[in-house]
Amino acid sequence: MDEPTHPSAEPTADEPPRPSRWYHLIGGERQGPVALADMRELVLEGTLVPESWVWADGMPDWLRVREVPALVPPRTLRVTLTAWPDVDEG
Prior knowledge:
Elements: E1 22-26, E2 29-34, H1 36-44, E3 53-56, E4 63-64, H2 75-78
Antiparallel strand pairs: 1-2, 1-3, 3-4
């Protein structure tokens, strides 16, 4: 699959800074925005796997979940998740 395009993240001059909005793809459809805590929950429940595409405000491009340190579960949790046991950080 080609790397998806991301929504515009540039706030207007009248907008105050806002927390990062996260987006992800499920079945090729963009989902979001959601908070980082919700993204982490999607990883832990198996909705997002290491190869899932994600993007957040401030990121230049979409990345795979496994490439985003804030979304990679700690090693102690990864061994309990079927999608993650053989995936190293970074």
